[in-house]
Amino acid sequence: MTQTPPTGTPPTETPPTETPPTETPPTETPLTETLRPHAEQAYADELAALAAADDRPRPPRWRLSPWAVTTYLLGGRLPDGTEISAKYVGSRRLVEIAVASLATDRALLLLGVPGTAKSWVSEHLAAAISGNSGLVVQGTAGTPEESLRYGWNYARLLAEGPSRAALVPSPVMRAMENGSLVRVEELTRIPAEVQDALISLLSEKTLPVPELDTEVQAVRGFNVVATANNRDKGVNELSSALRRRFNTVVLPLPETLADEVRIVEQRVGQVGRSLELPADLQASAEIERVVTVFRELRGGLTLDGRTTVKSPSATLSTAEAISVMTNGVALAAHFGDGRVRADDVAAALVGAVVKDPVQDRVVWQEYLETVVKDRREWADLYRACRELG
Ligand SMILES: Nc1ncnc2c1ncn2[C@@H]1O[C@H](COP(=O)(O)OP(=O)(O)O)[C@@H](O)[C@H]1O
Ligand SMILES: [Mg+2]
């Protein structure tokens, strides 16, 4: 694989002339080429500024003090004038509780409906606290115990017998060894008997490796941030033994319309910039309408409290409002004049609401005819949705 620097940008290092570049492929892709850099890469400047300004005590192996981690998540301005962007919009107390519990010997469980920024917060916590958000176990019905403990490189195991070199550590084991955070995504999707492997890890802080007659003892700084969806149907409940090892923080849906609009605005701006969609799209008015539709359908009541509406089967989370708007921005940028209008968001909006083609369509039609139609200033949205059929 050859790497050519983007045109117009001079390469920062001239490759040595004696070796053709094809023989020495760069081991790291330049950050600007990564589709989605890790939080610690994307916000390296903010993290460095925070570390420099941070004179409060840091728990063992933490890159930042709990105060600085909280500032990193919620945003703020440092004494030297550096702006720290808000990653999470919500209650300061919730974030403080989450950060404080990671400084104890109890693990953290972020619970909430889909799209309430559980994964997002856990990534930023790991980036700010350990400087590495990449130690992740993705929970699924098929997650094996090896993902929480260790596995083997079978070729080596057969050739050399059990040895440390043949052992393949899980992200959890690596976090125990370096004293860092490890993330466990969608904990309740992991089969109950596999989840149990975490219980002894979290209480003993030791991972036995009987094959090598040894054990790995967690270094100070090790902890687990898990996420779970409290709407998942038919998944494994957390056993009470495991639940006791976690401090649970419930991430709520945004409290007010203004909060939710702010989150969508901010994230659509960031996503748009990273996709290099022509900037300066005046999307705010459209964002407010989309978020209003979401909140009314979610709550079963119009925001003025006058009309009850039926709720569709979909969760209609903030995350989904973000993707509806990002779609609208892309349409407007590539096929319009750059200004997001009703017909740029209508298709994605209807797609987000109507997940079940029969029941949800009825719910949506009713909302369209009883609520959207009656709002004079929404006539363009009404027309755009009607035109979709
Ligand atoms: N309160 C919030 N503050 C900031 N961003 C939020 C908030 N709620 C949702 N988001 C955004 O929603 C998106 C999806 O969140 P995600 O972490 O994937 O949800 P979950 O894991 O809870 O299902 C993220 O891009 C995040 O920025
Ligand atoms: Mg998630």
TrEMBL record:
Domain annotation ATPase dynein-related AAA: ranges: 108-246
A Pfam family recorded for this sequence: AAA_5
Region described as Disordered: spans on this chain: 1-35
Secretion signal, residue range per the UniProt entry: none
Entries under SUPFAM superfamilies matching the protein: P-loop containing nucleoside triphosphate hydrolases
Biased composition (Pro residues): 7-28
Molecular function, one GO term: ATP binding
Matches recorded under PANTHER family: MAGNESIUM-CHELATASE SUBUNIT CHLD, MOXR FAMILY PROTEIN
Protein name: ATPase
